[in-house]
Amino acid sequence: MTIRTPLLDERAIARALVRMASEIVERCGGTEHLVLVGIQRRGVELALRLKRLIDGVERSDVPWGKLDITLYRDDLQMIGPRPVVGETSLPDIDDRAVVIVDDVLYTGRTVRAALDEVTDFGRPRRILLCVLVDRGGRELPIQADVVGTTVSLTATDRVDVLVSELDGRDAVELARAPA
Amino acid sequence: MSAPSLGKDLVGLEPLSADQLRLILDTAEPFKEVSERPIKKVPALRGKTIVNLFFEASTRTRISFEFAEKRLSADTVNVAASGSSVSKGETLVDTAKNLEAMRIDMVVIRHGSSGAAQFLGQRIASNVINAGDGKHEHPTQGLLDLLTLRDNFKRIEGLKVAICGDVLHSRVARSNIWGLTRLGAEVGVCGPPTLLPRDVRELGVTILPRIEDAIAWADALNVLRLQLERMQAGFIPSLREYNRVFGVTRERLERAPKELLILHPGPMNRGVEIDSDVADGEHSVILPQVTNGVAVRMAVLYLLAGGRPGPGQAAAGGDAA
Amino acid sequence: MSARPILLRGGRVIDPARGSDGVADVLVADERVEAVGRNIGEPDGAIVVDAANLVVAPGLIDLHTHLREPGQEDLETIATGAMAAVAGGFTAVCAMPNTDPVCDNQGVVGFIVRQALRAGKARVYPIGAISVGQKGQQLAEFGELVGAGAVAVSDDGKPVMSSHLMRTALEYARVFGIPVADHCEEMTLAQGGAMHEGIVSTRLGLKGIPAAAEEIMVARDILLAELTGGHVHLCHMSTRGSVELIRRAKEQGIRVTAEACPHHFTLTHEACEGYDTNAKMNPPLREAEDREAIRQALRDGTIDVIATDHAPHHYDAKEREFDDAPNGIIGLETALPLALTELVATGLLTLPELLLRMSTTPARIFGLPGGTLATGAPADVVVIDPAARWEVRPEEFHSKSRNTPFRGRLLTGRAEMTIVGGRIAWQRRGFAGAPAQ
Fold first, then answer.
1. How many contacts, defined by CB atoms under 8 Å, are there between B and C?
2. B306 to chain A: which residues are within 8 Å by CB?
3. What is the domain partition of chain A in residue ranges?
4. Could you tell me which of B69, B258, B281, C150 has the fewest CB atoms within 10 Å of its CB?
5. Residue B313's pLDDT is what?
6. Average pLDDT, stretch C101-126?
7. CB distance from B111 to chain C under 8 Å?
């Protein structure tokens, strides 16, 4: 039986997102060239929330998009029955500051795939990475620029991010297998 | 989230379950978007070698497969082989074994004999995709027709689709009949009795004796190409008479009770089975069919490449782990 | 030097020609049946065969076999075919003339006769061609063919498309008292067809041969037999329509005889699923109702005999796309077991009725010796175990070819020993009734 420990509750997530939204705008020097791209699936929901927070403060309409990285995964040949491919749709990203948004940063392979895919769509002036949870355990030289919370875990632990749009509630939980 | 697998080969639509058909159609959706990107390429099949083994000349199907393969970053080789095993040189078995010895990952085969794709699939470990075997099936054409219907009507179940023309000799007709009936559509066939199989009703289709009946009944018409050889073999007296009696013309369509969608697998014989003003008209989805063709073929290649190959595992119906 | 006498002791002796069926001994000597009765004394030097619980019957006779020699000796030779025949319980076979060169002259007839004698297994009676080269134009020299040993004429492999030629052949054959055997197929309907025209051919996308293609020619041949008073023998009947036509013709006293093959009373067109080329033959496998009609026709005698249409083909030839594969399957070594399993074990025919169809009647309608165990008849005898359960393994066949759809099938009954002209031509390895030869 896995043991589930809450790391962030609904209000903590909301506060973190407000801070992250403000950091994004600060790092990009405003919203003029900003584009938010959420990685399927929960990254998309988070990107949309960040967009709404930014728009609320800056009175903007930040362009945003969804990215499904399945076709760019480096482990496609090994994972057996094909995972279903979700929707990808991006606004124009040439000469923009693209912020890739995801729920959890772990090995870095998902982000590597996202970088490959985004650059097939155009040439941004810069790309930043924004994640709700950085759990360490990198297998590639990838770093997040904007982070909600950092935790340090072993390989047998798992971090689950739940969002109300998909899971009915907001939470960040640690799932640990018993010793 | 795992999905029902397709097995090693795509030999036809007849063995597929409704779930498997829906899997392919759903998988084709994101691939439509790939063809709209500035860089029309994803690395999903990078490093895979695919041979297009075409024993029958076919520019459009082969090009469509080639685009699908290249847009998935696969390496493509086109082999235009001569007619049947009997005519000259290598038998189909030897061709297959040679390809396998060169470590080919997938073979897309078009052949003049019914059963050729299955024959190949049972003898080599590579994935085999049927691009048309004799009069038996043309599964990717059936799939792109289904996708095009779904794009327009948002469903397949309960749709009335009339397949018009030389059903007897048509693998496109057969694949369509299997795919449509499996997904709950009602299928009608329309053509002179000389061009309809005698027991076609046993496949679960309605016979519509005249083109006017088909137009009055259907939501969509899938108009098949009529081949000149049929006239020469005596199945119909002339192409001119075929157009007069069975042609899909503007005048006939204007008398339809509703707006019909018009499909055609191509290439068209303008003025024979279909008139130009219909083919180029606002209800024709002939060009979207072509676009969907690439997406559907990408989906099929992508889904098959993920399987674990072993000879003879053609797609079987039902969910797998 | 004549062979040792053979005494077959205690078997169930069935002689359809004399209507006898009971436990008895059979003694053959000097190439003839010497005696059939109870407790026959054992002559000096006789081979004694313990036939208890076995059936002893006149050897089977196959009116329709393709031995491929001359011309395609890689598929089968007269020697290997004659061996396959005795391994199947046949003491005599009739060889169809579609060889290369065609058997349309006394040279080829004589060659076949001599090759068969050299092989020393089943008797082989050549069937000569109806037309020169089987081209369907000019009548072959029936007199010359019969004089060299032919027992019938046929253009089998092909139909006789010209009704005029068929009429002439039937009339001319009356001079020599031989039957004209026709392969009934209307070629313009059948052209390019690979299997029976029906729901299976529609699903598989293969061009079909409608039942009418056979029935049209059956009707024509019956009318010509009536017109000419000749004897027409209809090869490999496969449809219920053909059976109906033959039944009515016989009621009217027309001289028509007919044969059916084991695959047509065992399989249907569903055997072609998966494009199995071992299910491809001509005439094709038909529908379940046709199979049933053939079985009933064998029961009521509308179809007179069971013949094999043994058609060897090379592995490579059959290992190709269905459309391109040649027609035909081998049958000598599975005919009797299939008949016992599908017709006798099911209660449709009694064993004497089956033996009538496979031995006595074939001899009678082609005017051949054999088909009986009457005293003085040729010593052509088959010993059958009607209860043996076994699995078909083509690798064990004596035929050179392996093209059969019955691989792996479990059958009940088979031949155990075959005696031709008073000599043991074959016995099953492991047959307990007699010392190993």
1. 70
2. 76-77, 79-82
3. 3-72+86-176
4. B258
5. 40
6. 97
7. yes
Which of B124, B198, B203 is best to mutate for the C interface (most C CBs within 10 A)? Answer: B198
User: Which ranges of B72-204 would DSSP assign to H, the alpha helix?
Assistant: 92-101, 116-121, 139-153, 171-182
pLDDT at residue B316 greater than cutoff 50: no
pLDDT in tens, A32-53: 999 999 999 899 999 999 999 9
* Chain B residues within an 8 Å CB radius of A114: none
Binding partners of C (≥3 Cβ pairs within 8 A): B
- ipTM score over 0.85, yes or no: no
pLDDT at C436: 67
- Residue linked to tokens 């010593």: C379
> How many Cβ atoms sit within 10 Å of the Cβ of residue B67?
17
Eight-class DSSP state of C82 = H
A58: burial class by Cβ within 10 Å (0-12, 13-18, 19+)? middle
Kindly report the nearest CA distance between residue B191 and chain A, in angstroms: 40
B312 → chain C, closest CA residue:
C274
According to CATH, what is the number of the domain C6-56+378-427? 2.30.40.10
pLDDT digit string (tens) for B190-233? 999 999 998 999 999 999 999 999 999 999 999 999 877 766 78
Q: Is B311 on the interface with C (CB under 8 A)?
A: no
Instruction: Go through B95-116 and write b for each residue having 16 or more CB atoms within 10 A of its CB, e for each that does not.
Output: bbeebbeeebbbbbbbbbbbbb
Neighbours of C259 (CB within 10 A): 26
**Contacting B residues, span 89-108, partner chain C, CB-CB under 8 Å:** 91-93
Residue of C nearest to B314 (CA): C274
Whole-number Å distance between alpha carbons of C176 and C142: 8
Lowest mean pLDDT across B53-57, B79-83, C66-70: B79-83
Full-model pTM: 0.86
Helix A10-27 with A42-58: angle, nearest 10 deg: 60
Coil, strand, or helix at residue C21?
A: strand
Nearest to C31 by CA among C356, C370, C355, C359: C370
Interface residue ranges in chain B relative to chain A, Cβ cutoff 8 Å: 1-5, 26-27, 29-31, 33-34, 37-39, 41-44, 302-303, 306-308, 320-321
Written in H, E and C, the secondary structure of A127-178 is EEEEEEEECCCCCCCCCCCEEEEECCCCCCCEEEEECHHHHCCCEEEEEECC
Q: C59-366 in CATH: which number?
A: 3.20.20.140
Closest CA to A71 of C393, B298, B104: B298
User: Looking at beta carbons, which residues of chain A come within 8 Å of B31?
Assistant: 85
Residues B242 and B272: their CA atoms lie apart, in Å, by 7
User: How many alpha carbons lie under 13 Å from residue B293 in its C-beta half-sphere?
Assistant: 22
Domain annotation for chain B: domains and CATH numbers: 18-138+289-305 (3.40.50.1370), 140-288 (3.40.50.1370)
Q: In Å, how far is B33's CA from the nearest CA of chain A?
A: 7
- pLDDT by residue (tens digit) across C76-108? 999 999 999 999 999 999 999 999 999 999 999
Whether residue C61 has pLDDT greater than 90: yes
- CA-nearest residue to C326 within chain B is B86
Is A3-72+86-176 CATH 3.40.50.2020?
A: yes
Secondary structure class of C194 (helix, strand, coil): coil
Q: Which residues of C are catalytic?
A: 309
Domain boundaries, chain C: 6-56+378-427, 59-366
In contact, C385 and C412? CB cutoff 8 Å = no
C316 at the B interface (CB within 8 A)? yes
Taking a contact as any Cβ pair under 8 Å apart, which residues of chain C between 173 and 232 contact chain B?
Answer: 197-199, 202-207
Residues of B in contact with C205 (CB under 8 A): 114-115, 133-137, 171, 174
Q: Looking at the complex, does the CB of residue B118 fall below 8 Å from at least one CB of chain C?
A: yes
